[in-house]
Amino acid sequence: MKITSFTVRLVRQSAEAWYAPRPIPEGATPHFDFPLVSLETDEGITGYTMEYCPLGQGPGTAHQLRDIFAADFIGQDPLNHEAIWQTLRGKQRHLYNVTPCLWSALDIALWDIKGKVTGLSIAKLLGGYRDKVPAYATCPPQSITTVEEVAEQVAMKKAAGYSGVKLQLSGGSALDIPRLRKAREIVGEGYPLMVDSSAVLTFEDALRIGHALDELEYEWFEEPIPDAYILQLKKLAEDIRTPVLAGETVSLFELPHYLTEGQIDLARGDVHHKGGVTGLSKALGLCEMLGYELEIHTAATPLLDVANLQVACGLRGSRFVESHHDMFRFGLKGDPLRVHEDGCQHAPEGPGLGVEIDWDWMDNHTIDVLTA
Fold first, then answer.
1. Is residue 70 part of a domain?
2. How far apart are CA 11 and CA 339, in angstroms?
């Protein structure tokens, strides 16, 4: 089997849903253009993947995917995904202006092909650890600017059946601690709550919030300060009881440095940041050997999040999966990323990614096609 073509189409979504109920801010990107990649083979099997694009990088990413990487795929046997992955890893050495995230997404299309060849889902190919994962809802930051909005959003997410709720708050301790308290008041004791500060806090402010989280019994404190501040992360993890969750933005090969000396309590990763299905599998294995859990992060892109779910079901190591805004569940038939009555996302059972793309929807939202 050989890959015979590499196609990238740009699929456009309006940004209105992301910012609702408020208007799109002045100067913000008015739409998200998602690169959808198709790898066709000489045996009529096609693998699919998608790229992330909320800040206007969609068209540029589409050209980079084709111009930089198509030659590494065409003519290759897609079942040799480890060999291709290692080639891309080696190529990264001189891709100074491109992060590993770009080629990480392409690995998913290879696993989609492998699953279709074998008739097995990616979760089954990885080992079939389970068939569903508890899902928590993330409240987009623009929907929880006030204490009242926190109360409304958290109550709504809990009532919808999610297994937990995560707040995205980055206003600092004076603004955020009252909102964190309100969320706990609304859901009561024992219900899983998390907070993500998007790496914008000072150490001192993170420490104040961390002590409040200890009192409020939050599940974790995510990205309190930038991942690069490794010594401060270690100090924070030592000073508070709430687990510090970090490492989201570091590559697979940087992750061990965050684990070997206790710089963090929980690791973060997903198929986009950690090298596709292949790389995230390696990251989960690393964490298991060192006694860490790796919580799988959303990729805010439907096919990437399906891949995250498949890995979360195939291997042990992630307590939850993250369910973000509904706008990132587009273009797939049957809504495979929905949360079921048991508070879980269930892995699609079909081969590969296990999903059926709604090509009518995709065609109606395609604005450009690049081929190689």
1. yes
2. 24
